[in-house]
Amino acid sequence: MDLSAVLRLLYRGSRGAAAGVVNPYREAFPELDAPKAARGRRTNLEAYLERVGSPRLVLLGEALGFRGGRFSGIAFTSERQLAGPDGPGSRRLPWAGSPFRATSRNPALWLEPSGSVVWDALGGEARGALLWNTFPWHPYGAKGPLSNRTPERALVTANLHVLERLLAEIGPAARLLAVGRTAQAALALLGVEAPALRHPAHGGAAVFRTQMALRRASLAP
Fold first, then answer.
1. Contacts for 145-154: CB closer than 8 Å, 24+ residues apart
2. How confident is the model at residue 89 (pLDDT cuts 50, 70, 90)?
3. Beta-ladder partners of 196
4. Domain boundaries, the chain
5. pLDDT value for 218
6. Has residue 142 got a pLDDT over 80?
7. Which residues share a beta bridge with 177?
8. Where residue 1 falls among pLDDT bands split at 50, 70, 90?
9. What homologous superfamily does CATH list for 4-219?
10. How far is CA 173 from CA 49, 96, 118, 176, in A?
11. Can you tell me the distance from the alpha carbon of 9 to that of 166, in angstroms, rounded to the nearest whole number?
């Protein structure tokens, strides 16, 4: 699967009025980001896509969060899961390590609770499982770059070209699941129907795990 055209669109950044949006694949802030951070996030994403291979399952979220993809470069994934300490009790995913790296100046490395729930539900396995977002950059709120906000409908609509190209490249064989109603509504704008899973944030983790277990069972050979 060649996603080079999708990545070019992604790295280029969002269209339209985009105040309060960070494109972490091109932008870095000295007070938050380590040296060569944007390049590191591109490397992380591309190495993850190699591990996914041909997707059998696509989980589509809303947008990158500051504890997750803003610094890891991968939807529903934290830098601690990529480059944290290995060993008993570690949050590092089994396929992580080199060449993945942390890109923030946070010495503890960021860890996103929702991302941990998603990867636990996937059994930590990247092969065949593509994680992506409806709005694939980081929109932040009034509290600044270390906060999150729901991207406005107009902003999502103006940037559906990235998701549309992604879906065209992966084809109809993959099972598509929307994590939350925002993702489901965005897919509907493209004429794509997909079931919505409960988002694991705000008390939804248990329901999400149950729904994911049922969906994964239905995909078993």
1. 145/22, 145/29, 145/32, 145/66, 146/32, 146/66, 147/66, 148/63, 148/65, 148/66, 149/20, 150/62, 150/63, 150/182, 151/21, 151/62, 151/63, 154/16, 154/17
2. low
3. 178
4. 4-219
5. 67
6. yes
7. 59
8. confident
9. Uracil-DNA glycosylase-like domain (3.40.470.10)
10. 17, 26, 22, 9
11. 10
Task: Work out the angle between the directed axes of helices 4-12 and 37-52 (0-180°, nearest 10).
Answer: 150
Place of tokens 């899973």: 197
Cα separation of 163 and 153, whole Å?
A: 15
Look at the chain and count its residues: 221
Q: Is the pLDDT of residue 221 over 90?
A: no
β-sheet with 175-179: strand ranges across: 129-135, 57-63, 175-179, 196-197
User: What's the CA gap between 209 and 205, in Å, rounded?
Assistant: 6
Give the pairing type, strands 138-139 and 21-22: antiparallel
**Given pLDDT bands bounded at 50, 70 and 90, which one contains residue 214?**
confident
Report the candidate in 76, 71, 43 with the shortest Cα–Cα distance to residue 197: 76
Burial (CB < 10 A; 0-12, 13-18, 19+), residue 102, is buried
The identity of residue 110, as a single letter, is W
Note the pTM of the prediction, 2 decimals: 0.95
**Radius of gyration from C-alpha coordinates of the chain:** 16
